[in-house]
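Board notes (copied after class):
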Amino acid sequence: MPLVRIDLIRGRRPEDIRAIADAIQQSLVDVLKIPERDRFQIITQHDPDEIVALDAGLGFERTPGTVVVHVFTQRGRSTQDKQHLYRTLADQLARVGVDGKDLFISYFENGPDDWSFADGRAQYIEGDLPIPGR
């Protein structure tokens, strides 16, 4: 159950925002093998001066097309799986007009006791949902 936050600079058309969100979801389905309806995304648009994402010294410039993707999910995936996800995200987003240099990905892991889907209950711990990977 990934929770994905998508931050981008204001000004895209609604259909372009949806295409970005759909490309991210498809990447998660393809690589992490999550169910199609396991979709939790928060999309936030910012004014241009509200996203500062430099190149960390890698020698490239980002454009106003910058997209920051934060993936929150349960621990247990290999480094190779994560790298495969990063490449797939870049490929899928390129198809909808996001340049790879404008993509910043942050991946966070936690455990089954860190999730509540509703009613203030820990559905993984209480047995309502199967713990991924077990």
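Comment from the instructor: The mean pLDDT is 94. The CA atoms of residues 27 and 112 lie 22 Å apart.
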